[in-house]
Amino acid sequence: MKHALPVLTVLLAIVLAWYLAAVALNAPWAQDQAARAGTNLTPTALLHATMVQERPVLPAPHQVAKGLWDGIAGQKITSKRSLVWHAGITLSATLAGFAIGSLAGILLAVGIVHSRVMDLSVMPWAIASQTVPILAIAPMVIVVFASMGVTGLVPKAMISAWLSFFPVLVGMVKGLRTPDRMQMDLMRSWNASRAQMFWRLRLPSALPYLFTSLKVAIAAALVGTIVGELPAGATAGLGARLLSGSYYGQTIQIWAALFTAAALAAALVAIVGGIERVTLKHMGLAR
Amino acid sequence: MAVIEAQGVSLTFQTNDGPIHALKDVDLTIDKGDFVSFIGPSGCGKTTFLRTIAALETPTSGRIGVNGLGADEARRARAYGYVFQAPGLYPWRTISGNVSLPLEIMGFPKADREERIARVLDLVELSGFGGKFPWQLSGGMQQRASIARALAFDADILLMDEPFGALDEIVRDRLNAALLELWAKTGKTIGFVTHSIPEAVYLSTKIVVMSPRPGRITRIIESTLPRERPLEIRDTPEFIAIAQQVREGLREGHSYD
């Protein structure tokens, strides 16, 4: 309850500001229409007109809410107009990309920590890979895969993995390197093998860092998937929904898809956070 | 019988500011069951020498023999238990789990591990704390747990690098007395690095005074105190006389500067 009040206050302020912005942004079109029809709008009629447009510049919150409700509850889940169906498509590619990306990030980090050659050679390339604008790369990845006859989930998952491996790599390298000299010396004095050092010291030390990175990575994976759904006229997924919305000026549809994506990201991050809490608590790392 | 023999041990670190002579021509023999303290100002190489014995550093020249083996062979034969200034317990393992760690690495069977954990925790008076996590224990208790960990696998040499340096005087007194008791019970050979003259005199059978630039031994003092040492022994004239010798040794070292 103590936390609810500030959150609700902010939410209320946002909704209020949103309504005001909707009125301001949608009014010119309403006045334009009235002028063409040769009528004059009373302030109340103008206010009403800004709230019910079919393709408003900025849909009012209740319009987006209705769009969301229609998309989620108003359709059969298997329908192409169902947001749940689109979200499911996006989710599957996100999870696949997240799995590939995280695994790649962890394996590269293990290599970097254990091999000086990899330390010097991999990191610059990993950083370079993230400086390439994903929007530029995504269509090429889709096209290349399509030319090999691979479409659907896999190319999207690759773009998603491209974005999600990096935070895992950076966090995991940092985490695997946290054991200090003293702890390594202790292991040495017991004549521990490198594998024993890894499994019993480096890996457990790295877990808190890993979880933090995974939270960043899963959100990045969702962004990657949506970007992967934009080009080449994809017909399914939240990205496709955003794209078709913008083709046809369906602003309500765009906003509904945006909110679905945001809710999906929040849910995914929360799930990783939950696993983190349980794991660290089980390890005695959470107080 | 000599357990540790150092002959002409020198160690030079190459740094960007030129070579640092951490150790120069160090000769020392440590007998079985000795309690040897290394004392001297910072940079005198006492920690480096201890690390060299444990094969955590490799001497540039000279040789170190442990139980008739080379230092690194002895490390691989797990001849040392090493205790650092910080307890270095794994926060994700309980006290028992931490003591169990070297045993797991060395491949002791489970039943044997449990028996050993119980025995060494009893030795450092931590019975009943095995299920606690390190952060639930005080600093002194954590350090005792780290000593238990070093004792668990029955290495006959215990090397301690300022193990009580971070603890307050009162806790330190108690742990010193406990350490002597433990030494009497186990008969281990102990190498002990310290900054404190009373600590060195109270604990040791042999006090090695070292001085810096280059790190070397300036004086070796054989203690005449009996092995049985109540805390009050620190007020006896004999104790004060030995402390006086140590202080002189430290002063000698400084006159080289």
Notes on the protein architecture:
The complex is a heterodimer of chains A (287) and B (257). Chain A has 287 residues and is mainly α. Chain A folds into two domains: 4-57; 83-283, Orthogonal Bundle (MetI-like fold). Chain A has helices spanning 4-37, 43-51, 61-72, 83-114, 116-131, 134-147, 153-176, 181-189, 194-229, 238-247, 251-283. In chain A, helix 4 runs antiparallel to helix 5. The model of chain A has no long low-confidence stretch (mean pLDDT 88). Chain B is an alpha/beta fold. Chain B has eight helices and ten strands. The A-B interface holds A 182-183, 185-192, 196, 200-201, 204, 283-285, 287 and B 51, 54, 56, 75-76, 78, 80-82, 84, 86, 88, 90-94, 101-102, 104-106, 133, 135, 153.
Topology pattern of chain A, helix = H, strand = E = HHHHHHHHHHH
Q: What's the domain count of chain B?
A: 2
Give the strand content of chain B. Answer: 25-35%
Q: Quick one: CATH class of the largest domain in chain B?
A: Alpha Beta
Taking pLDDT < 50 over at least 5 consecutive residues as the criterion, the unreliable ranges of chain B are none
Counted beta strands of chain A: 0
Quick one: overall form of chain A? elongated
Q: Which chains share the greatest interface? A: A-B, 18 and 25 residues
Summarize the structure in short.
Chain A is an all-alpha fold and 287 residues long. Chain A is 80% helix and 0% strand.
List the helices and strands and how they pair.
The complex is a heterodimer of chains A (287) and B (257).
Chain A: H1 4-37, H2 43-51, H3 61-72, H4 83-114, H5 116-131, H6 134-147, H7 153-176, H8 181-189, H9 194-229, H10 238-247, H11 251-283
Chain B: E1 2-15, E2 18-31, E3 35-39, H1 46-53, E4 61-66, E5 69-70, H2 71-76, E6 80-83, H3 95-105, H4 110-123, H5 139-151, E7 157-161, H6 169-186, E8 189-194, H7 197-203, E9 206-211, E10 216-222, H8 237-254
Parallel strand pairs in B: 3-8, 3-9, 6-7, 7-8
Antiparallel strand pairs in B: 1-2, 1-4, 4-5, 9-10
Helix pairs in contact in B: 3-4, 3-5, 4-5, 7-8
